[in-house]
Amino acid sequence: MADIREVRQVVVMGVSGVGKSTVAKGISLTLGWTYAEGDAFHSPANVAKMASGHPLTDDDRWPWLASIGDWMSGEIAAGHSSVITCSALRRAYRDVLREGRPEVVFCHLVAGEDLVADRISNRRSHFMPSSLLHSQYQTLEPLEPDEPGVVVPVDGTAAEVLTRTLDALGITPPPAEGARS
């Protein structure tokens, strides 16, 4: 198992509604790592475009990905392990995120389109409409064997998915306070 004191940058990736934020927050709380929501790095124009039902183009995404990469570089320089959400649907996007950052590993959360569509239809206060979900599945390029990362199915409870994620990443959480060794 990995030593959690090593500086690591985990990008929790996948289509909108697959559970990226839930898993990333769980990793952050369990390990005490810095957490960031990738959506917060979008420009107001990107958010407005998606909210109006229009998918982003690569030209829309490159500055967003660069901002996320800059944030991770800052975390690495500060000696902080962190976890951030980012759809990272295409290999080219993931290449931007890990360029010059060997600490970056991807956690690709996977689920069928029907399950994710149901989740999106039940969530509130998010700018991404369910009408764009199919385009995300069409754009998605799964992790390739030479990319640093793991694939985690999201069936089950949030706690089960978090445990599965930590296991897949090879991370043993620290013992709970008061637990005997």
Please explain how this structure is put together.
By secondary structure, the chain is α/β, with parallel strands linked by helices. It has a single domain (9-169), classed as Rossmann fold. The protein has helices at residues 20-31, 44-51, 58-77, 91-98, 113-122, 133-139, 158-169; strands at 9-13, 34-36, 82-85, 104-110, 149-153. Strands 2-3-1-4-5 form a 5-stranded parallel β-sheet, with helices on both faces. The mean pLDDT is 86.
| Topology order in helix (H) and strand (E) letters | EHEHHEHEHHEH
In whole angstroms, the N-to-C terminal distance is 17 Å
- The helix fraction, in percent, is 40-55%
Which regions contain 5 or more consecutive residues with pLDDT less than 50? none
Average pLDDT for all residues: 86
> Strand count, sense and closure of the main sheet?
5 strands, parallel
Largest beta sheet: strand ordering: 2-3-1-4-5
Radius of gyration computed on alpha carbons: 16 Å
Number of domains: 1
Oligomer: single chain
State the CATH superfamily name. Answer: P-loop containing nucleotide triphosphate hydrolases
Return the CATH topology: Rossmann fold
Structural class: alpha/beta
Q: Would you identify the CATH architecture? A: 3-Layer(aba) Sandwich
List the helices and strands and how they pair.
Layout lengths: L8 E5 L6 H12 L2 E3 L7 H8 L6 H20 L4 E4 L5 H8 L5 E7 L2 H10 L10 H7 L9 E5 L4 H12 L12
Parallel strand pairs: 1-3, 1-4, 2-3, 4-5
Helix pairs in contact: 1-7, 3-4
